[in-house]
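Hi R.,

Here's the chain you asked about this morning:
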Amino acid sequence: PLLPLASWKLNLMLILPFLVLFFRLLDGFRPTIARSTLYCLVLPELLMAALQVISLLWNGRDNFMRGYSFLQTTSMCAAVLSGVWLTSGLPHLSRLRLARGVTILVAFVVAVYMGLSFVFPAWRPSSAWVDWTTGSLGFIRVFGPLGSATSLLFILMPAFGFAVGMVFLPGYARSFWVLITVFFLVAILATGSRGGVLCLAAFAFLLMLSLRMRAVMLLVAVGFFLGGLLAFTGIPQRFRQMEDTARTETYRTALRTFAASPRNVMVGAGHGAIYSKLHDDTLRELKGRDRWYLLEARTAYGFTLRNSHSALMRSLVETGVLGFLLFLTIPVWLLKRLLVPPARRSQGQYQTHALCTLAGCAATIPYMMFEEFLVGAVWIVFLWTLLSVVGSEGVTEDSVAPGSL
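And the predicted structure, written out as tokens:
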């Protein structure tokens, strides 16, 4: 049977929407969705998922592989719906309390990862990968069973933005949030992801555009911190070496697949046609193989990694131009909410906090070019969605009366 074989994270995500609805109804709140969130996040995701399900009919895979692709699609919808239902429609301070708890939880989990990675490397969650990472990258990257080092950035950047925003709020343990901000900054660099550097640069750029001069002092402080860190440790080989032959060839295979026929151009080659984590989530467990053995595939269009390493490429290949445009709706929505002042945008400190949170979520956009996003890492997409709604729905609200978080 397919369900027991699939990743436990996929299975858990299928249950999560029902749990969220139950607790929201139990709490007395009707799970409403703000109009902009509904039209620019939820509907594009659901329509893209519908296109993915239809495309299973021509993806060229057997029924077992199609069933797993359907499970992936369903879990991604569940992740987005859970994040939206849990936050949208809540009072402002309730959303902040929820997001604060999530951010602190993420900090705790990553602290455990970092402790096991650098203090007790033999005990780390991903201890089997230590030899591989240190041999090829020059240092042990921060990752484990909840997500790879690369995947962790999808939640580290939004959590970093939320923590930066908390620094601007008076009366909420500012020194604590300064420490949390520095911790997330170190964690982002410790993942060893080159895309993480791009995300930090995007965050700084977006923050300067949205906050104007109010962000300058913070960015100067972060710049001095990074400069001192690099002066002390030097630039790791991971960040100096940018060549990635396997990933580049995967991009080329994606473009060949997209251009192979008019149908592929319009509606794609089919969800799961050339990319599937089935081997990683199921066959590795059954055969006891090392996961790296299963990362490559030979397709009719050429060599590819099991992971597309690009959300943009994956949406283009699997759902064509139509799905690609639906996917682009989401980052465009983020940027519009961040950079185009709506009529009711307030100028208070809660407004600054919302913009910082939204900047952290939008800063993952460059990473969509170099890694899967909204098509993988389901539990991280759930948290990203949650914080995106907190930032997006906070930017149009009037100043909130002070209250204890």
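The radius of gyration is 21 Å.

Let me know if you need anything else.
M.
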